[in-house]
Amino acid sequence: MIFIKRFAEGKLFIKAKVNNVSGPPAFFTQLKLQDGMENNLAPTYYTDNFFRLLPGESKTVTIEVAVQTEMQIICN
User: Can you give the residue ranges of the Exo-beta-D-glucosaminidase Ig-fold domain (predicted)?
Assistant: First the structure.
């Protein structure tokens, strides 16, 4: 779930909350920021990546990406 987006100094900051709603633990959970064509946006920086979530656990990750004039970001 994406819940905060903000722009500052040519960068986009996104806060994403990830929930483990399954029964087993989720290991090596990785987030990727992609454009509408499923291409990874680079350079992209994450406050955490490749983490684990126990059942019912959630984690908030901040994603930072440089904004380009033609860039269109779709957050689902």
Answer: 14-67
CATH number of the domain within which 28 lies: 2.60.40.10
Name the residue range of residue 52's domain: 2-66
Query: Is residue 76 in some structural domain?
Result: no
| C-alpha distance from residue 73 to each of 2, 23, 27, 38 (Å) | 12, 32, 27, 11
Q: Is-above-0.85 flag for pTM? A: no
Q: What is the pLDDT of residue 37?
A: 84
